[in-house]
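Researcher: Sequence recovery benchmark, item below. Answer with residues only.
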């Protein structure tokens, strides 16, 4: 009965995802496209910016002045919750997601800053607060969490990987980008995250995946999007594109592949 509930009708519909890949491949854009698709399905979605570049807010079309300060820079808050020197490893964070997030396009944006070695060695105060907040969001049912990670392999912290149940690896159709994708995938699997998909962004129509070890299963390709390419000089938003229906289908495919 208990297992039937877990596996059948009682199964949670939400997931916690992280998006990883080499620099500039489209991680942030894809985080927004998946989040936007889910939000329009009526889901509660948290988008977590865990990159020093802080571009998730921009990709959502927010002006610079409206993008929240990264949590790791909230010195006063960190002092109040975690303390200094002798730090509290279990700070109260329940009120923080709502307080620190910015609602945009039906999504909730939470800007963390880099999750430096979360779950690893660093016990500095900002990290303790980020870790506690991440852990708090992850255990909440009925809400989606999508973490936009810093580019590359180095930032794939054990804490982050163990906090999510699915990894979206993004790559361009190039050898170097795929090699990074493969390293990320292998590392994440070693850290206990087998649920992964590979997405090739800016793929040509006749794209064929080269034979390379370690890559997750290819789940979708995204072509160069003309409407996004043409607005680059005017806006950094990736929302409300002419290709939205196509992107919705890709988002649905990614989610269904990660759940199966
Ligand atoms: N399929 C696409 N067609 C056209 N433009 C795209 C496409 N995907 C992404 N872009 C554009 O490419 C740029 C890089 O995308 P994005 O910021 O999502 O990459 P990233 O992997 O998050 O980069 P970083 O490693 O710097 O965080 C953005 O300006 C985005 O609008
Ligand atoms: Mg990015």
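Model:
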């Amino acid at each position: 009965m208990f297992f039937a509930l877990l596996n059948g009708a009682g199964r949670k519909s939400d997931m916690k995802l992280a998006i990883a890949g080499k620099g500039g491949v489209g991680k942030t854009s894809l985080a927004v496209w998946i989040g936007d698709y889910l939000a329009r399905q009526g889901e509660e979605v948290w988008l977590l910016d865990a990159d020093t570049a802080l571009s998730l807010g921009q990709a959502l079309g927010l002006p610079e002045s409206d993008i929240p300060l990264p949590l790791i820079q909230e010195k006063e808050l960190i002092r109040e919750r975690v303390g200094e020197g002798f730090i509290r490893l279990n700070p109260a964070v329940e009120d923080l997601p709502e307080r620190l997030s910015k609602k945009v396009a039906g999504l909730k944006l939470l800007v963390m800053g880099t999750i430096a070695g979360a779950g690893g060695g660093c016990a500095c105060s900002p990290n303790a607060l980020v870790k506690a907040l991440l852990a708090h969001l992850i255990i909440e049912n009925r809400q989606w969490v999508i973490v936009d990670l810093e580019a590359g392999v180095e930032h794939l912290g054990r804490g982050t990987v163990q906090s999510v149940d699915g990894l979206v690896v993004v790559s361009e159709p190039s050898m170097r980008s795929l090699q990074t994708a493969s390293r990320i995938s292998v590392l994440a699997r070693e850290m206990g995250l087998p649920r992964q998909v590979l997405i090739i962004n800016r793929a040509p129509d006749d794209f064929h995946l080269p034979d390379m070890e370690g890559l997750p299963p290819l789940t979708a390709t995204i072509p160069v999007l003309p409407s996004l390419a043409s607005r680059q000089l005017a806006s950094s938003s990736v929302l409300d594109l002419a290709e939205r229906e196509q992107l919705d289908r890709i988002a649905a495919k990614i989610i269904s592949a990660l759940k199966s």
